[in-house]
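Collaborator request, handled under Task 6.
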Amino acid sequence: MSSTFNWILTATEFCMTTLRTLVSHHILFAIGVVLIVGYLLGKVADKLKLPVVTGYIIAGILLGESIGNVIELKMVHALRPITEIALGLIAIAIGGEFSRSKLKSIGKELFILTLFQIGLTFVLVSGALMLIGFKYEFSLLLGAIATATAPAATVAIVQSLRARGKFIDYLYGLVALDDAGSVVLFGLVFAFVGLTLPNISSIKNNPMIMIFTALGEIFLSIIIGIVAGFILHKATYKKQNKSEIMIIALGIIFIVISIAHPLHISPLITNIVIGATLVNLSYKNQRISRILEGLTPPIYALFFAIAGTELQLGIFTQPGILILGVIFVVMRMIGKYFGVYLGALTMNSDKPTKKYLGICMFPQAGVAIGLVLMVQASPIIANATSEMQHLAINMVNIVIFSVFINELFGPVLSKWAIIKGTGIKP
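Structure tokens returned to the collaborator:
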């Protein structure tokens, strides 16, 4: 019996080693493996009444370094452009919901909902971490990072359910404003933290630099988004051929994504503005989003599977991080849910908005990781004490733990909330 078991283990290891070798030699093989495994687990998730994105994420975890080690870190980095394309398409879809008529009817309400949920999340997460003794500067930074929400899972679920209506308008608007608001709040908190830590004279001499940098990046993102949206409108308005429209649209989206990094602007905000510009220039431009939707199934499958490969199970072996991570996740969920609820109560919103919209804000991913890594790589931490640098590493692990939990369970809760909020049948 034992020899049979050992033979199975040896055969499995041989297959995994062979697969790993093939994947490492050709990126297309890696993409193929990710797509097939993601598809299979997506079907399993669908059979279990779970969002297919949960299956894609689990596929990534199984293929990533935490378990199968089939997709190594260098291959994940090589696949990064796919995640940027997915976020670009997601942002265009969100922006396409920002027509003038919708903004007039829900604009003030959206602003209040955003303000309440960002404010309450920040206060609860920061306060809870400070109460258990985590250093207050890093508690404030984690509170600011906790306000960020991942739009990818939400948009993928909405599109798979073909959900429409007022609830979805509120959801798209809240996700878009949340990202902009979280970046501004993070800039403000980062500026304050720069004043409190030692050995950072260059930062102390410019205490407002972080604030103006954050606001400047958002402003530049908006300007580039408006210009790119106008160009795309002019280039496609008179065209009837769907293939030509797709080629032009993808070309402009790719260019915008590629220039976002050297200009230090948000590709997410920029593409949201492109979508909003298009729909407000002409309702005819809605066909661009519909044409691009045909590309989304394989792109989304790759996007969520790649995200799964980056989730590290090793975090669960660190008791200290587990305690801090659980507090972070629980307080963030309470802040998101009751922040939206209180905002909706203040604005006398309808019952679905009060009860279910806050749950859709639970997913968290790329923006949060980007912000925490920005802290770790900043001069503020590089010039700080070794204790502060160690706390910064802990901070990264807390956020990664939160992303792990929220990426696995957030989509499940979001799907349930969207079904309840819209009243559709799954």
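The cover message to the collaborator said: "The chain has two domains: 2-78, 81-422. The first helix runs from residue 2 to 25. Please let us know whether this matches your experimental observations."
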